[in-house]
Write a structure and sequence with these properties.
With 204 residues, the chain is an all-alpha fold. The chain is 74% helix and 2% strand. The protein has one domain: Orthogonal Bundle (Arp2/3 complex 21 kDa subunit ARPC3). Helix 6 packs antiparallel against helix 8.
């Protein structure tokens, strides 16, 4: 009886969420985009520096993935554009409390660009293809967004950064060991949590 009651209550909450999401006005979506930008900035401060790489462990990729899920391709992308744009304008909410235009040219600038692209990718795929809204496809999409888009653009700039600013070109293997390898386990956990949350929130 308790399980049946919990299931009924959960379905009611889910229905209310679907209704709320569908009835959002343009201004409300803009406000949510700014809210997700702020959430990304806050999670960027959840930071664990590593002595062997200029790229720290942060929590912001979770907000990036959820922005695409909840806000869709357009407003999810906007949320990350706001995060990056406001940060470049001087708001110190990038990882480590940094901000300013120099951040885009730094070792983590490629990851910032990757956030925008990843949010669009997640939103676009879940909007267009209903089959992606199940748990396994969602994890696959988030795997691509995190490890191919965010890591791909991040590693590309990290390699360029070492070559041009330090005149110390790194091999791709060395770049991967500094800019991706230490973060894989943590990002897999974030992907699993985000996929479970997305499975609950998305309408099939």
């Amino acid at each position: 009886m308790q399980i049946a009651t919990l299931t009924k209550n959960f379905n009611q909450v889910k229905t209310k969420y679907f209704t709320w999401q569908k009835q959002l006005t343009f201004s409300q979506k803009l406000s949510l985009s700014l809210g997700f930008a702020m959430a990304t900035g806050l999670l960027a401060q959840v930071r664990i520096p590593l002595f062997f790489t200029p790229v720290p462990i942060t929590g912001q990729t979770f907000a990036v993935l959820m922005a695409g899920i909840i806000l869709g391709s357009r407003f999810g992308t906007l949320s990350q554009m706001l995060y990056v744009g406001i940060g470049l304008a001087g708001m110190p909410w990038f990882s480590g409390g940094t901000g300013g235009i120099a951040s885009l040219a730094g070792p983590t600038g490629g990851y910032l660009i990757g956030f925008v692209v990843a949010a669009y990718f997640i939103g676009f795929m879940t909007e267009r293809f209903k089959g992606t809204r199940n748990l396994v496809p969602l994890m696959g999409l988030m795997f691509i967004a995190n490890f191919m888009i965010i890591y791909g653009l991040g590693l590309l700039q990290l390699k360029i950064w070492f070559s041009f600013f330090f005149h110390n070109p790194k091999t791709w293997a060395a770049t991967f060991s500094m800019g991706a390898l230490p973060f894989i386990a943590g990002d897999m956990v974030k992907i699993a949590v985000a996929a479970l949350a997305a499975k609950t929130l998305l309408r099939k």
